[in-house]
Design a protein that fits this description.
Elements: H1 10-13, H2 24-37, H3 46-57, H4 63-81, H5 84-97, H6 104-125, H7 128-141, H8 145-160, H9 167-191, H10 196-216, H11 220-229, H12 240-249, H13 253-265, H14 270-282, H15 296-299
């Protein structure tokens, strides 16, 4: 998926809460993980990776702490290093180790891992059905604002594809995308209750997703109202891809191109930039723009 999510709110989705009294190994692991969080936006992901690996090596006994570290490590490989095989292996381990759990925090972490794995399945395999199954399983396991947002993104992308679906099927997907986007916004208050900053950033992106859906369905007035309600300053670089899609929907080709180039620059490695280029090459709303000469840098992979 694309919306920095996919790629996108990976850092924002990491759960910061802890459960119960912490043992010595857990305390050390949590301290290292908090340091790793602080390096998420570094141009080079090495510091964040090293700290996260050290956190895991500290031998946390708490399944919650261990799963939080795994989720962050998977996110780093997915969004920063571009090592999707490693990210998938980490997510799979987290999902297996938390199967059948009744603990709310572990169910939430498990659901987040499913969503992120679903993003990879869609990006790498272009397997929409399998990805959607993962998103639905995640939402069934624990109803997250983040899983609703990601599922909305996928439904919108499916609806915007130019071939393979009837108008009725596309209409149904758009209706589902709108429902999920509104659900994501409504659930953000509870999901990010302990972190107002993350909540504000997520709500801004979720509202932007709603703007995209409403624009795609021709609900211009509703889209304008949703746009007016979101804090644009909260979007940051993470919102550039969605904003580029919105520009493309509106026929603003130059603005879409400029935002995509800026977003590409936020990916610190060639492998990660090439992964983003996969999305750009297959994004339905970029179809007419991919013939532009100035899109070569956005479409052609770099040597790894």
């Amino acid at each position: 998926m694309h919306r920095a999510p996919l790629l996108i709110a990976l850092a924002l989705g990491c759960v910061a809460a802890s459960a119960g009294p912490a043992r010595a190994g857990d305390k050390e692991a949590e301290k290292l993980l908090e340091e790793a969080y602080g390096h998420w936006n570094d141009p080079d992901p090495k510091a964040a990776l090293d700290l996260a690996e050290k956190a895991l090596g500290a031998g946390p006994e708490s399944a919650v702490v261990r799963s939080k570290i795994q989720l962050f490590l998977g996110s780093l490989h997915q969004a920063k290093t571009g090592d999707l095989e490693r990210a998938t292996a980490i997510y799979d381990d987290l999902i297996r180790s938390t199967a059948g759990t009744k603990e709310m925090m572990l169910r939430q972490l498990r659901a987040q891992a499913m969503v992120r794995k679903g993003n990879i399945v869609y990006a790498e395999k272009q397997n929409i059905e399998e990805a959607l199954q993962l998103f639905e399983a995640a939402h069934s396991n624990f109803q997250l604002a983040t899983s609703a947002d990601t599922a909305s993104q996928l439904c919108l992308r499916m609806a915007r594809e130019r071939t393979g679906r009837s108008d009725a099927a596309k209409k149904s997907l758009l209706e589902r995308a709108e429902r999920l986007a509104r659900e994501a916004i409504a659930r953000a208050k509870d999901e990010f209750s302990r972190d107002p900053e993350r909540r504000a950033a997520f709500e801004a992106k979720a509202k932007l997703q709603l703007v995209l859906v409403l624009t795609a369905t021709g609900k211009g007035k509703d889209a304008d109202e949703a746009w007016a309600s979101l804090e644009q300053a909260r979007l940051g670089d993470a919102g550039l891809y969605q904003l580029a899609v919105l520009d493309a929907m509106k026929g603003q080709a130059d603005a879409a191109t400029e935002k995509l180039k800026r977003f590409l620059e936020t990916r610190p490695t060639a492998k990660a930039r090439n992964q983003l280029r996969k999305f750009i090459r297959t994004e339905p709303d970029f179809t007419d723009l991919r013939v532009r000469d100035d899109w070569k840098v956005l479409l052609e992979d770099e040597p790894v």
